Structures are given as C-alpha cells and as structure tokens.
Amino acid sequence: xxxxxxxxxxxxxxxxxxxxxxxxxxxxxxxxxLILQKYKNNKIINFKIDLLNDYVFCYDEKFKEKEIFKxxxxxxxxxxxxxxxxxxxxxxxxxxxxxxxxxxENGLITKNFFDNYINISRDYKFLSGPFLNxxxxxxSVQRNKLxxxxxxxxxxxxxxxxxxNPV
Length: 167
Hints:
Alpha-Beta Plaits; SH3 type barrels
C-alpha cells in the first residue's frame, strides 16, 4: 500500500534509512524529480527539482495496519503522513505509473510531463531559439505543434524545438 509522506528536505536520507530499518527491506520510496532547462549566458543549463517539493511516496504492505504509524511517528525528518491515502490507492498508482512512463534513462522526468498542460489562455516566454525572451500566446494546440501569435506574427512551431515557460 502506498502512502504519501511530507518530509524535511535537509534530512531525507536519514528519514529514508530509519524508515527502512523499521519497515524492512521491502519498503520502496518514489520521489519524482524533473529535469528542467534554463537558458543563461548563451548556454542551456540543466537542473533537477522535486516534482512534489517535500512529499514522497512510500510503499509497504505494513501500511495496511494502523499500528505501524505509531512506530514511524517520531522518525527524524518526518513531518506527517497525508490523510486519505487508503482510499486513493488507484489514483496514486496511476500518477506514479504516469510519472515513470515519462522518465528518461537516469530516472528523471522530462519536460514532456507538461505537454498535456499547455493552456491557451496564458502567455508564454521563449527560453531558446530566435525568439529568445519574446512573449507569445498559444492559439491552438495540435499533436506536437503549437499555433502561436508572437507580436503580430501568426506562426506554427514544434513543441520539442523550443524551450518556453508560462509568464
């Protein structure tokens, strides 16, 4: 059974080790991380961020029993267990499987995670290419192309050719 845990980022390793001691070797953690790119000084810089900030998924069959939470309650680095995880097992599994399907060979989620969430009503800013730092509006979204409006120019771009962020 999966549970969702809020932890202290500074002591995650200690928390993970102590939790594994209590639960045993069958305990699994899943902490989805994104690899993002930023354009700075004519270079693309890659950096990692936690997708869920200071939350982590933890799997163990012992979470079916309420007694185990008494032993884990005072683990160093633990802030609290998120309530309602028992009734949300299907959604948690679906989310974890979705994240794992978008991971690269290093186990990091790529920018494809956000492809389904391009909003037509928002403005975006280019982070690379000839339109660097230009703001544009998305007119329509196709499979792997975006119809955009940059200033007075109406054009089509491929999603994977440019880096952009919401403004």
